[in-house]
Each structure stands twice: as C-alpha cells, then as structure tokens.
Amino acid sequence: MKPENENGFLKRTSIRYMIFVYFTVTALAASIFIGLSLYSRMSKQMSDTMQEENQILIDQVNRSVDVWLRGIMKLSDSLYYDVIKNADLENERVNREMMLLYDNNQDNVENIALFSRSGELLEAVPASRLKTGVDPTEESWFRAALSKTENLHFSVPHVQRVFDVSENQYRWVISAARVVEITEGSSTEQGVLLIDIRYDSLEQLFDEITLGNGGYVYLMGTDGELIYHPEAQLLYSGLEEENLEAAAGYRDGIHEEMFQGKKRAVTVKTVGYTGWKIIGAAPMGGVTLNALKTRLLITFIVVFVAFLLAVINAYISTRITTPIEALEKSVNEIEAGNLNADVYVGGSYEIRHLGTSIQNMATQIRRLMDDIVAEHESKRKNEFDVLQSQINPHFLYNTLDIIVWMIENEKQADAVKVVTALARFFRISLSRGKSIITVRDEIEHVRNYLTIQHMRFKNRFTYGIEADESVMDLASVKLILQPLVENAIYHGMEFMDGDGEIRIHVYRDGDDLYMKVSDNGLGMTKEQIENMFSEKKHVASKSGSGIGVRNVNERIRLYFGSDYGLSIESELDEGTTVTIHMKAIPYSETAEGEKINVK
User: Is it true that domain 391-589 has CATH number 3.30.43.20?
Assistant: First the structure.
C-alpha cells in the first residue's frame, strides 16, 4: 500500500501537472542547448528556404493575377465579338446581352459601358446615366484606348466618377478600355468599350499574402505607379515610404537592396500583357558555421536527447496510459450495449473525473431510454385515441338513419349514393393506419363527408371544391379538411336564416401548399378565434368527428414544424375562412405514408 500522503498527492495531481513536471526540466535544458547550438546554422538555412518559398509565393500570386487579367480580357472579347460587333445599334439594343455578361461577372465588375467616339453613352449596365458635367473623352482610359486602338488598356486604381449611381459611396475601380467598331445602319465608326473592374476583386488576390521574416507583397504599374500595397493608406498620407524608383528598374529575379538602413531581398515578377510588376520585399539575415562541426554536434545532441526522452517517456506513458486503458475497456462494454457495466475510476484527476462522467452518462442513457419507451407507448395510445375519435357514433347513427328513411321513401338512388359516400368516407378515414395520404384522397374524403351532410340537412347549404391538378399527388396529413368543414356546418350555419355556402380551395404557391375552407356563416369574434388555439382541453363537437381545430393545428405543426399550421379570418355575420398551410412535398417522397421528410 502507498502512504496516505502519497495518495493525497495523487488525488490533487492533474495530468497537465504531471506532464509539466516530468518534461519541463528535460525539454527546457534540451531546448536551450539545441537552440544555442543550431541557431547560427539554422538561421542561414531558414533564410535561404524563405527566399525560395518567397519566390514560389510570388509565382503563385503572379498566376492568380494572370488568371484574373485573362478573365477580364475574356469578358472584353465576349462583349466585343459576341455582342457589339454582331449588332446594329440603329435597330437593336445590346443592353440585355451586356447585362447577362455583367451578372455572370458581377463579383469582379462594377460597370460595363459602351461610348461613341464623341463620348456619347450608348449602353451601360448596371449604371444608366452619366454624372452631370462629366465628359468621358477627358478621362485617361478613354484617351489611352483611342491612342492605341489594338490594345486593351488598364488604368491605375481610382474612384469611379463617371456614372451616377444611387449609392452614396465611393467605389474604387480599375478601368479596362478598348476601341471597338460600332455598326449603326450602313455606317461603321469607332467607339470605346469600358469595363470598370472592382478594385477589391484584385485586392482579394493579395489579402493575407505575407512573406517570411516579416515580408510583404505589392503591385506596381509599368510607369512606376502603385497599384496595390498592404500599407497603401500610410504611403499616400506620407507616414510610410517605399523604394518604388529602384523597384521600377529591377528585372525579374531576386535582388538585394538597402532600404531605410536595413538589408532586404526583393523578388520581382512581371505580369504578362500588362507589364505590371509583383514585388516581394523581405528582410535578410543569418550566420554560417563550419559544416562538419555542425553535423557532428547535431548528431550528438539528437542521439542524447532522443535517448533521454525515450526513457522518460516510457515511464510517463505507463503512468498515464494504464488508467486510460482500463477506462477504455469499460467504455467498450458500454458501447457493446451493457449499460450496467462497472466504469473504472482511477488515475489522475482528469481520468477519474472522466470515468465518473461516463458512469453518470450511462445512468442518464438508461433513464432516457426508459423515458423514450414510455413516451412511445403514450404516443401510440394517443394515436389510437385519435383514430377512434374519428368515427363518431352520432355521425354514423344519423347517417344510417337517413339511409333508412331514403329506403322507406323509395329513394334507392339517393340511398345508394349515401351508402357509397359513407363507405368511401370510412375507407379513407382508416387508410390502413397511415397518417399521411395524398391531397387527392383528402379531398375525396371531405367530398364524401359533404355529400352525406348535404343530404342530411336537406340541401340547406351548397358547397364547392376547387383544386389544381398539380396538387393532387402532394402529401397531406390525414383528416384535416373534414373537421374544418364540420365546424362550418354545425357552428357557422347552425342558427342561420338563409342558405349556407361552403367553399374549399386547394392550391400551391412555390414550396407551400394551402387549403382554404370558407363559409358564409355567423362568423366569430377575435376572442373566440384565440380560444380555439389556447384552450388546454379541446371539447369536440357533439355531432361531428371529434377532431377539433386545435387538434388539426397541432398535428400539422408536428409533421411540418412551427412555421406551418392553421390561420383563421372571420367577421361576425360575414363568415369565416380557415387556411391550412403545409409544405408542398410529393407523396412519393414520404416514408410510405408514415413520415414526412421536411428539409
């Protein structure tokens, strides 16, 4: 047995503290020794490696910018050769085709516009007009396009100041312009095609691009102007400086320069077509050691530290992993289904706490499983009660009584009609125990119910059913229309002086399915409507099916979620409209009438 004070120490010792105590002294001594021995050697190697990685990163950025430029050039060619060159602007507009290309490239493009040689705006998307007092022919991109008609010209970043937009904000853009041939009737003249490129689309290519050892990347134009810089605002405000003149004279490759009293490596890569330069600047540093001594020293240190750490790690691993392995065996038993298995509790504080938590979890799982079984039994009982309540004795008795009366009065045809409707009514009511049926069956069920009630009440009301064919094969919760029609007959028209009217309309609106039941009965107050949904215990109709409005609403919400259900609109002496809102789901996608998969 271990002394009591040792057991008390272990109880207070955490796994983090154990690892810290055993490893810190060795790791700290080894780290200091290795760090001092290898610093000078590794610094040079890291410097060389960083330069290689910086070169690779600059190449990757160059490819990204090249792809970005090719996308703009491809868009320009599509606008010219596929839209403008094939169109006669005297008889047709190209706004629709330009808008289509704009929509496909709106992440990168701010505006697309077509100007005549005199600066008249012919077409523009999405902008529609020029700013007052603006002359496009005075813009640098317009003059550059006309000066070299064979090229696509890219401007430096600037604020878009040509078009009048509704947004009260500045938009930084890079203007790409070229000369195009415009056909108007029998004449052909030159025009200028402008594509305002969103500056942030270029900026995204450089976002979070940093070089090793605190370096950075910037983009410079052919004339030495700055196109992108991570510290652009500081440069423009004069708080920072950049060696742009020297960079403008560098060719592709790696160059060394002194800047602000520090030596740094400058990597240059020219972007095709535009002649822009991607420039990466990173500080330089590093000291070399004798290669042979370095290898011998590193070999000795690695072997010594590896041996020392292997011995210590073997001891620590045994102390730490033995309780974990015991706990794993307990967890495997629980995973195999034995929730009554004894869970190992021992080792460090964290492992003991984990074992206790797993033990409590197993107990909670057993309790939850018992609750689920009880809840399942209760749900099945409730479903059975609902099914039983669907067949109300009063309704069946009254229907049979009217059938006998018809037979006695030699109205066999009417009796056959009622019997047929009653048989179909109960066939759909049962539906082999399914809770989900098609809209077609739900409408057929309420149609049979209305047929029976129409004969019972000796034509005291009229009814009509309107349903689009497109909704017939959608899924519906069973028996939701009939309770609403029942309320309309027994409550809405019970004390009416004139003839009643019931209308049912089923339609689809996008992803939603709606069923409306309207009557011209006595109507309800707002308080009566609220009570229909808020009563803790719903009292069924004495003559109906026993399924109330609140029951229907809860069943719809159960299958489709809280965003769906019933809504009621009613005015006293005017009538009532009850709207059923469900998700439009094909019946074929349900689980054989038992489950609706709402995504």
Answer: no
